[in-house]
Amino acid sequence: RHKCLRHAGKGEKLMHFPAGLCAQATAMNNLRIEEKRRAALLGGGQARIDAQHKRGKLTARERILLLLDPDSFDEYDMFVEHRCTDFGMDSSKNKYPGDSVVTGRGRINGRLAYVFSQDFTVFGGSLSGAHAQKICKIMDQAAMVGAPVIGLNDSGGARIQEGVESLAGYADIFLRNVLCSGVIPQISLIMGPCAGGAVYSPALTDFTFMVKDTSYLFITGPDVVKSVTNEDVTQEQLGGAKTHTTVSGVAHRAFENDIDALLNLREFFNYLPLSNRDPAPVCECHDPSDRLVPELDTIVPSESAKAYDMLDIIHSIVDEREFFEIMPMYARNIVVGFARMNGRTVGIVGNQPKVASVTLNYCRSLELLTPFSVFLTSGCLDINSSVKGARFVRFCDAFNIPLITFVDVPGFLPGTAQEYGGIIRHGAKLLFAFAEATVPKITVITRKAYGGAYDVMSSKHLRGDVNYAWPTAEVAVMGAKGAVQIIFRGKEANAEEEYVEKFANPFPAAVRGFVDDIIQPSSTRTRICHDLDILASKSQSSPWKKHANIPL
Amino acid sequence: MAAAPLLRCGGRRARLPGWETLYSRWCLITSHNLYSSVYDPNEKTFEKLLIANRGEIACRVIKTCKKMGIKTVAIHSDVDANAVHVKMADEAVCVGPAPTSKSYLNMDAIMEVIRKTRAQAVHPGYGFLSENKEFARRLASEGVTFIGPDTHAIQAMGDKIESKLLAKNAKVNTIPGFDGVVKDADEAVRIAREIGYPVMIKASAGGGGKGMRIAWDDEETREGFRFSSQEAASSFGDDRLLIEKFIDNPRHIEIQVLADKHGNALWLNERECSIQRRNQKVVEEAPSTFLDPETRRAMGEQAVALAKAVKYSSAGTVEFLVDSSKNFYFLEMNTRLQVEHPVTECITGLDLVQEMIRVAKGYPLRHKQADIPINGWAVECRVYAEDPYKSFGLPSIGKLSQYQEPLHVPSVRVDSGIQQGSDISIYYDPMISKLITYGSNRAEALKRMEEALDNYVIRGVAHNISLLREVIVHPRFVQGDISTKFLPEVYPDGFKGHELTDLERRQLLATAASLYVAEQLRSQRFLGTPRIPIAKSKRRSWELSVHLGDEIYPVAVSKHGSSFSVEVDGMKLNVTSEWNLASPLLSVTIDGTQRTIQRISRNASGETSIQFLGTVYKLQILTKVAAELSKYMPEKAAEDTSSILRSPMPGTVVAVSVKPGDTVSEGQEICVIEAMKMQNSMIAAKTGKVKAVHCKAGDTVGEEDLLVELE
């Protein structure tokens, strides 16, 4: 009987032998297959689909439809059903072909991607053993062929009826998340609830995006929180998109609704290589690589305490002013994100002089999501910005994406809040990340590069390939005022002037070869594009090790 | 090409007048600046000149100085340290912090710079110290030449009453009127009849148009007298009334004069400046469609008579109101170079700045009245950083993230003092540039203006290109049927942008959809040979849904080579372009019609804004599938704006008239915001109790900053 089934691809007519008993059986089979297929496409049924729509959410299949190129989705495991027999789960009305997740592979702008999309209409998207097994299957294959995995999360959590089977399923996924880390890009898009142990899969992936108002991420929900800590908090306050993109740093970006999120994900996908075996993709580019950017010659204010927007510099240098910022609302004193230079994906890291470091006061009450201590030290590195930067740099290094670093940093942020919070070990993460990175590294010092922060920000000493200084650069141990107080104890009258003359310029670094050239800011784009062409064949390795021990 | 060397070698001393006219014509066609470059290198002039101004006019003066071989000194405030005029000048000195009273109006500092740099002359530009007799006096006392008339003329013309008296004596038409105590209504009627209806009646002591009443007959005069005399007595304690000829639907036409210190004066034809908003000119042209040669000569001769009467030297402007029967009345005389001087330069070929410098040096005029031509037509648009959708223009600030002047369009002159990356700040006038186009006739000049406006790239600040473009193509403007009330008459409910015709809407939809598809196709094109082959899409047609305004249009696009065939509203359109997606300007041909459009923004969600026919349209383009699914997307609750008051523009809070707990009624003034010399009264949108006040007098606020909340 099984031989009759040659191929059961999507929508194709089933092949069968034309005669005898076999034909009868085949006809019956065909009917069953069609029935199952139809049932699978309907998920939890029309009523639940309508309820999903009422919540402002799309169904698992609608999401895949929007994420992938038209007609490119090849589904796996449409007939898989859960295996639970307890609590009446084995009755036929509790069986849904495909169970609570849709998995498969498809194309995004022609490039291969593996996708799983949790189906909230089937048991609230809860994770059964079968559900986990389906996800693991595509992850295994994605790792094998070297293509990214995109998870569309919308799940109530573990399938309680299955008990430890469900927990085992989570662990199977976690293991694969870890093994795939640094091998293929993994992206999570949270499009509904994601609570309890389930949160750790997105947390292990490279990027976590959220949908505003309809998605939540938390370890324990408001009810448990109330019973344990007596805090009154809503789902949105506890784990909504705003919380995670501004306060916790768990999510990398939030989008308006399902459609907005999926369309943005398509665009984001174009920046990524398919795996660590592939170079950063190069897109067709209409922006001339030798375009001069005259406004950069005057963008840095003459007063060194005055702010400017690093995003202005980034936008004017990259292709077509397109910059896909990662964590735009979190630790805004550092800017990270993807852009293209002459069509090639690059990762950009920049200190943001416009934004004073914002450190969260550990607040006891959950109403108090807003009290921040604002320091007037713009563009400083602090705990959050170091961690944000480090994670981004490591992603780029893992996936062959060249790094371009714009430096205007007055140093690390002082204070008890920072020291008690462990700025030493967190700051070390960024230092570690830049030092271990072997992708092409280009650094532009636009203004201040003071103290240890100078070393950290992709300096020559950390194997920077090309390090430039603008004429406005000041590479020194610290600002003139502080330095003069230490050197002269405030006794020398013209000391500050002397110090400025000596150090508030790019020469001390340039004469030692710590910067390769002092360049006209307007030529920055041209220079970087040329450098990237040359550095495309860069090869550099570090000593053999099982893995490095980044100060976590 | 033949003219190019001529331009450089300049004129010889004994050039015949007729030659210069011819010369000017050459320059009009060939020179980038559209004014004459006739310059005699043997004529001794100043060695160093200071420009007591900023922005475009400072740059304009420096250009002529460079041509004449004069070294230039720029002054600037600290925020202007990187300004274009600073870079253009040979020397630049900071005269103080950003506020004009501490920098560009800071006479002590400027005098100090003059002494230090040994500048021999000062060109004041317009505004700032240009009509300040004290400044002119101080310069004179230190032996520095002021490029402008002498103090006497500045003083005489600066005083409204004195200038009118002088004009009357010089037999210049002034607005007939009576200013004094009127005994009774009968006397008012007698005066009104003498003047001729319509008349305007108001209390003499009331400033501006306050309490002004218009009377068209005896009855209305009696009524007006009653009201105005009551008001005069009660409000001002001053019985005097002003009864004056009311000029209905006036045009604002001004005559450029040029006089030397030897008693010679010329009139350089007129400029039509009727298109105004809040008494500020927006579009100017020369000549005026309205004047016939007789009226022009009559106005010119009266202007010259007035100039001679005050022993005027340098360039000056005599402003007239002209009624529908071509009666003209003297308004005032501006004793400086006007903003709109370029249109005069275009049609006469004279470099007015050069002539001002020559005259200031004591040279007699080189031209006779008969040498002053009207060559062709010139139109000037004032391009402002302001939002024309808010009372025809509220200032906007920001960084010019992208800026490209349309200099590739023929016969375009752009006078500007900014460049890509410049900041438009709250401290100074929000003018971005003056865009001037020239043509052999008005139609040609206007056609070029249309093209120039479409090709002008300004990003990062709001701008008034949409309004300018609408004005210059409006049938009333094209016919020359304009007055100072043009804008409020044509747009009684405020300016709302270009109104698309059905054809234009289809063109816009087709262009936007084609652009979307071009972008989608490009995002599938990766270079190199990837390890996992890319699945090439064989797709040749797209079903899209385009959201524009309140409508959703189904649009079908199919690709044929580099062009797209687009079906909208049952009509097929053919759209061709190079589809350069990085260029700020995109030239597309839609069914044979060429249009220059600008894609201002786009994002992954299909939202895009496109500047089309001057106006920026917001669209959202989705595939049919996505559009169908978008009905399930939750509506985001919009902020209730009636109970909050936000600043419509960046500026300074001048006064706050409410405090928390106050009850305000709809329309009541809540606070006053001042920006760029303009005060705006913020009013309550509904009746209610004040919940919180987030600003106080003296605060600097940004656009959209929360000012006051109601309960």
TrEMBL record, chain A:
The EC code for this enzyme is: 6.4.1.3
* Organism from which the protein derives: Taeniopygia guttata
Q: Name one GO molecular function term.
A: propionyl-CoA carboxylase activity
Which InterPro entries does the record match to this protein? AccD/PCCB (IPR051047), AcCoA_carboxyl_beta (IPR034733), ClpP/crotonase-like_dom_sf (IPR029045), COA_CT_C (IPR011763), COA_CT_N (IPR011762)
Q: Where is the CoA carboxyltransferase N-terminal domain?
A: 26-284
Q: In which pathway does it act?
A: Metabolic intermediate metabolism; propanoyl-CoA degradation; succinyl-CoA from propanoyl-CoA: step 1/3
Which is one Pfam family of this protein?
Answer: Carboxyl_trans
User: What's its catalytic activity?
Assistant: butanoyl-CoA + hydrogencarbonate + ATP = (2S)-ethylmalonyl-CoA + ADP + phosphate + H(+); propanoyl-CoA + hydrogencarbonate + ATP = (S)-methylmalonyl-CoA + ADP + phosphate + H(+)
Name it: Propionyl-CoA carboxylase beta chain, mitochondrial
Every copy of the CoA carboxyltransferase C-terminal domain together lies at 288-534
The annotated subunit structure for this chain is:
The holoenzyme is a dodecamer composed of 6 PCCA/alpha subunits and 6 PCCB/beta subunits.
Q: Name any GO cellular component annotation.
A: mitochondrion
From TrEMBL, chain B:
Question: Know the name of this protein?
Answer: Propionyl-CoA carboxylase alpha chain, mitochondrial
Q: Taking every annotated instance into account, which residue ranges of this chain make up the domain Lipoyl-binding?
A: 636-711
PANTHER family the record matches: CARBOXYLASE:PYRUVATE/ACETYL-COA/PROPIONYL-COA CARBOXYLASE (PTHR18866), METHYLCROTONOYL-COA CARBOXYLASE SUBUNIT ALPHA, MITOCHONDRIAL-RELATED (PTHR18866:SF33)
Biological process terms in GO annotation:
lipid catabolic process
Write down the PROSITE patterns for this protein, in alphabetical order: ATP_GRASP, BC, BIOTIN, BIOTINYL_LIPOYL, CPSASE_1, CPSASE_2
Q: Where in the cell is it found?
A: Mitochondrion matrix
Subunit structure and binding partners: The holoenzyme is a dodecamer composed of 6 PCCA/alpha subunits and 6 PCCB/beta subunits. Interacts (via the biotin carboxylation domain) with SIRT4. Interacts with SIRT3 and SIRT5.
GO terms (molecular function) for this protein are: ATP binding; enzyme binding; metal ion binding; propionyl-CoA carboxylase activity
Which residues does the UniProt record annotate as the domain Biotin carboxylation? 45-492
> SUPFAM superfamilies, per this entry?
Glutathione synthetase ATP-binding domain-like (SSF56059), PreATP-grasp domain (SSF52440), Rudiment single hybrid motif (SSF51246), Single hybrid motif (SSF51230)
Gene name of this polypeptide: PCCA
Write one Pfam family the protein is assigned to: PCC_BT
* Predominant location: mitochondrion
Name the coenzymes or cofactors required.
biotin
The entry's keywords: Acetylation, ATP-binding, Biotin, Ligase, Lipid degradation, Lipid metabolism, Magnesium, Manganese, Metal-binding, Mitochondrion, Nucleotide-binding, Phosphoprotein, Transit peptide
> Which pathway does the record list?
Metabolic intermediate metabolism; propanoyl-CoA degradation; succinyl-CoA from propanoyl-CoA: step 1/3
Source domain of life: Eukaryota
On whether Magnesium is a keyword of this UniProt record, the answer is yes
- Reactions this protein catalyses: butanoyl-CoA + hydrogencarbonate + ATP = (2S)-ethylmalonyl-CoA + ADP + phosphate + H(+); propanoyl-CoA + hydrogencarbonate + ATP = (S)-methylmalonyl-CoA + ADP + phosphate + H(+)
Q: Which InterPro entries has this protein been placed in?
A: ATP-grasp, ATP_grasp_subdomain_1, BC-like_N, Biotin_BS, Biotin_carboxylase_complex, Biotin_carboxylation_dom, Biotin_COase_C, Biotin_lipoyl
User: Which EC number(s) does UniProt give?
Assistant: 6.4.1.3
- The answer to keyword Repeat applying to this record is no
The Gene Ontology CC terms held by the record are: catalytic complex; mitochondrial matrix
- Domain annotation ATP-grasp: ranges: 164-361
